[in-house]
Amino acid sequence: MAWRAPDNLRFYIQEARLVPINLGPSEPSVHTILHALPRRYRKLRAIFPLQPALFNEYCQDWSEEFVPCVSLGEEDEDKETGERFTVPCPPFYKVPSISLARADSLKRLFTWIDILPLETVRRTIHILYPETRAWSFASDADDPDHNVFKCVTWSQTVDHDDERHCRSAMSIFIQPPWVLSIRDIERFCKRQSVWFFGSSSAAPTKNLHECPTTPHERLWYKIWDCCVTRSCPWFVVSTYSHWVFGVFSNGWTTAFVSPVYSHDSHDPSVLQLLLFWLYSAMELPGGWVVPDVRIEPAYPTQHLAALDSDLVISPLIPRHLPSELDMPRSATSDSI
């Protein structure tokens, strides 16, 4: 007899794998270059990959301690909200398979990600933490790269000073696999230094539009801008077939990124990783702690003359990331 997912939620998120995606016989013909160029206002200077073995251990330990393996007495589907578990896990669970249209566009690719992993994660966290029911995944409005780039945020709407504001905890950035290749994703995750106006010795007046850029560099530019705009340092990058989990430091000068995980990853699974990273972003018990960063100031001491093309966003005050959280273990820069 097959179980309901909440009968042993821990085993379900450990064993459930995303089904292979159906991309279609040919790649769509679209403009694939992101509209993101080097800008002086960006503070990011370094990318640090997290050690795979240690990161996997964190995620597994979190699952063992914070996801129950006893029945929670819940059904797979919430009849009131319609939320449900959607990732099948035969032969142990009775979660049915869902037939989805061929992912031959970014819109259809988003449907695969939204209906399968994101719907399952939303149902899971709302069961484990009912006080988070006001939070959900929201799709952002289109931007200049709407054909090849989509942002989804885990957020809630709050009232403040008679106005409604959106509070975001984590962003998920989606690009199609025919745009963001596995080679680009692997380069995106490598340890690297980032200089947004050429190099450390480049003249401040250098024309930024003449700086050559690569796909993974443009992706970093785009993600940094999106995260700063939302005051939301936690993020995920996904093509559905591959997943990366990252976070910016308190001063937005450093990014920490996980290894690349495939859709059918095991020990940990994509569902485990998504839940673990979401818990971390919401500062729930057991989440990962962003290491303290001690690097050179983000900006050189000499004056930088801003060009009109640099001033595309207003200065923002980022959400503060505490250096310590209520959790069983802490992370330091030594664990990088």
Class per helix and strand makeup: alpha+beta
End-to-end gap: 44 Å
Residue fraction in strands: 15-25%
Largest sheet: 9 strands, mixed
Mean pLDDT: 84
Could you please describe the fold and organization of this structure?
It is a single chain. Helix 3 (106-128) packs across helix 6 (270-281) and helix 4 (182-188) crosses helix 5. The chain contains 6 helices and 9 strands. Strands 1, 2, 3, 4, 5, 6, 7, 8 and 9 form a 9-stranded mixed beta sheet that branches. The chain starts with 8 loop residues before the first helix and ends in a 55-residue tail after the last helix. By secondary structure, the chain is an alpha+beta fold. The protein has helices spanning 9-15, 52-66, 106-128, 182-188, 215-229, 270-281; strands spanning 46-49, 136-139, 150-160, 163-174, 192-193, 234-238, 242-248, 254-257, 261-262. The model is unreliable at 197-205 and 296-336 (pLDDT under 50). The longest helix is centred in the middle third of the chain and has 23 residues, at 106-128.
